[in-house]
Amino acid sequence: MALGFFSRLKAGLSRSTQKLSGGLSAVFTRRKLDDQALEDLEDLLISADLGPSVAEKVIDSFRRSKFGKEVTDEEVRHALAEEIATILQPVAIPFEPDPKHKPHVVLVVGVNGTGKTTTIGKMARFYGEQGKKVMMVAGDTFRAAAVEQLQVWGERTGAPVIAGKPNADAAGLAFEALKRATAEKADLLLVDTAGRLHNKSALMEELAKIIRVMRKFDETAPHSVLLVLDATTGQNAVEQVRVFKELVNVTGLVVTKLDGSARGGIVVALADAFGLPVHLVGVGEQADDLRPFSAEAFAKGLVGDSIKVIERDDDTKPDDDEGADVPQEYPPQV
Fold first, then answer.
1. Other CB atoms within 10 Å distance of the CB of residue 306
2. Model confidence band, residue 77 (pLDDT cutoffs 50, 70, 90)
3. Please, are residues 175 and 216 in contact by the beta-carbon 8 Å criterion?
4. Per-residue pLDDT tens for 230-240?
5. Is there a binding annotation on residue 116?
6. What is the predicted pLDDT for the residue at 272?
7. Is 300 assigned to a binding site?
8. 110 labelled binding-site residue
9. Which of 6, 131, 146, 179 is least enclosed, having the fewest CB within 10 Å?
10. Parallel, antiparallel, or unpaired for β 161-162 and 188-192?
11. Residue 141: closest CA among 184, 113, 171
12. Does domain 104-294 match CATH 3.40.50.300?
């Protein structure tokens, strides 16, 4: 029996939970919620990467509702989970390909090493299992490892991968891929891109060219621009969102590597700062560890709240194909 995703999310967030929950236990052991307690809580929230703005909102709420009352760490944990879920709920928007577009073109952007290519492969599997016809484009043509990795995912998922020669023009490749995907009536076209942020002007020019050239075939493309962020970078992720919003019209976020980080609070800071949809989160290397984002499950997992989250049936059923079509080991995230 496979673990439900909430169980995997809790396990993946364990390092973040230990940091935040351990701090709560240290600060609150049936203690009156006075100014000093609130100051300690604010410091804890900031150190857990939720950011000053979120910390201030939570403290203001606690001051209004609980100031002067004796509270336990469990009561604070539950109230904090509710506050965080309230911030996250507006951005917890599943990614759904628009059936009006055949294909729905998704430009996937992000700094090298965040897990862009892995995310594309996992998305191909996820939406392929929903009956969507998915195609992938190896648009990071300067990195042979990224091209090879996407081809491996193509073999495992059965999704065609359009790749060119090393150092090929990414815009021309995306154009040809869009023509082919349209002719083959694909539902979803996932376009990998370069992430050389150290050369911002060159990256901006390349992404702009990809969009400009694709629009010669379909003036509405791309229909989504997903920015992949690595949770282990903490507050650096905020700056990456700012930079990529300057480069392209980012429509949504994917946050990866939450299992390798004590900085899961960054998701809350991002929601508060930008209000961009958080479509997917990754909590492990397995293909099933990239799933739609749930505000309630994430909030409770982050703070270690013991209140039960009801898992959906599709999260608790056994994986019929576990160990069959997709091997248990996956290439490292690129």
1. 10
2. confident
3. yes
4. 998 888 999 99
5. yes
6. 96
7. no
8. yes
9. 131
10. unpaired
11. 171
12. yes
B/e letters for 134-167, b = 16+ CB within 10 Å, e = fewer, are: bbbbbbbbebeebbebbebbbebbebbbbbbeee
194 is annotated as contributing to ligand binding: yes
- The correct CATH number of 1-91 out of 3.60.120.10, 1.20.120.140, 2.60.40.1930, 1.10.1660.10 is 1.20.120.140
192 among annotated binding-site residues? yes
151 alpha carbon, distance to own chain's centre: 22
> Assign residue 286 a region: left if phi > 0, alpha if psi is -120 to 50, beta otherwise?
beta
Q: Residue 101 CA to chain centroid, in angstroms? A: 23
Q: Spell out the domain ranges in the chain.
A: 1-91, 104-294
Asked whether residue 258 is marked as a ligand-binding residue, the answer is yes
* Continuous segment of H or E residues that includes residue 80: helix 73-88
Helix or strand (DSSP H, E) at 56: helix 51-66
User: Could you give the C-alpha distances from 252 to 32, 89, 209, 287, in angstroms and in order?
Assistant: 41, 14, 21, 20
The pLDDT, as a whole number, for residue 8 is 65
Is 112 annotated to bind ligand? yes
* Angle of CA points 132, 127, 89, to nearest 5°: 130
Is 158 annotated as contributing to ligand binding? Answer: no
Kindly report the backbone phi and psi dihedral angles of residue 206, in degrees, each rounded to the nearest multiple of 5, phi listed first. -65, -45
Is 114 one of the annotated binding-site residues? Answer: yes
Six token digits for residue 63: 């001051």
pLDDT at 115 over 50: yes
Structure tokens at 155: 């073999």
Entry field: residues in the chain? 334
17 is in an annotated binding site: no
- The residues pairing with 135 across neighbouring beta strands, listed in sequence order, are 189
27 is in an annotated binding site: no
113 is in an annotated binding site: yes
pLDDT of residue 312: 42
User: Taking Cα atoms as reference points, which of 292, 101, 94 lies closest to residue 187?
Assistant: 101
